[in-house]
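Quick one, probably user error.
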């Protein structure tokens, strides 16, 4: 799979409320080819787009995502906390986001973001929904059991391991998840680890890079793609 160079982090980056359809639409208008977003299970097992296990930071709700049904979550405002101009922006389901990505022609990295204790179930369900979607998709997760469950559910969907620093056992993690790529923190990237991953012929993508000069340095080192909150810093041609 060829990565877009610039991937809008949490849908549209910092310019829109994170993990929303408004974000996807803006990413498209900016000329992005790829987006990343986080998928977690509601209490009724429906995957929705949200980063935190709790609702306070990004929505009008309170409490835990895993305790609310998808219908309850769908009634929350996921935009007004970012800026009142984005009220009322719904908290989308994964299916809604995947449909819009397919319609807009956006490549999507679905990050499986399980609530504690729901790792394997979240991996399974997110993979099932992703496998039923159209468009170019890639799954990733910090959770090894979520990725393994995703592989068991839909082995043909490409997967990337997601880590902070590249660990010494990255090869074992790649093979346990039957993954083909590494996503790691730009801040924790060591040149030797990058060289080892590149020598193995695997793409490496770095989060979260919000300055052009940092991105240029990473691309010069051999990084394939970056996740950014500031996709507006690049022209459509550069993405
Ligand atoms: O998938 C890359 C990046 O999104 C991982 O960090 O916390 O923003 O989901 P986070
Ligand atoms: Mg993420």
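Nope, works fine. Designed sequence:
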């Amino acid at each position: 799979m060829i990565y877009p160079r610039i991937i809008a982090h949490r849908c549209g980056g910092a310019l829109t409320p994170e993990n929303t359809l408004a974000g996807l639409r803006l990413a498209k208008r900016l000329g992005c080819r790829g987006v990343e977003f986080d998928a977690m299970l509601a209490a009724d097992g429906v995957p929705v787009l949200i980063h935190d296990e709790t609702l306070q930071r990004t929505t009008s709700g309170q409490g835990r995502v895993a305790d609310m049904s998808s219908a309850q979550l769908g009634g929350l405002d996921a935009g007004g906390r970012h800026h009142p101009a984005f009220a009322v922006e719904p908290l989308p389901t994964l299916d809604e986001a995947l449909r819009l990505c397919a319609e807009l022609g956006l490549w999507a990295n679905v990050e499986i973001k399980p609530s504690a204790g729901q790792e394997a179930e979240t991996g399974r369900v997110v993979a099932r929904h992703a496998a039923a979607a159209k468009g170019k998709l890639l799954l990733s997760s910090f959770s090894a059991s979520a990725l393994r469950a995703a592989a068991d559910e839909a082995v043909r969907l490409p997967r990337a391991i997601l880590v902070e620093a590249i660990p010494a056992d990255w090869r074992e993690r790649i093979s346990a998840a039957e993954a083909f790529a590494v996503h790691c923190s730009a801040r924790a990237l060591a040149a030797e680890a990058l060289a080892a991953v590149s020598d193995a012929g695997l793409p490496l993508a770095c989060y979260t890079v919000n300055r052009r000069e940092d991105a240029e340095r990473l691309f010069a080192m051999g990084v394939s793609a970056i996740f950014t909150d500031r996709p507006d810093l690049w022209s459509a041609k550069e993405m």
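The radius of gyration is 17 Å.
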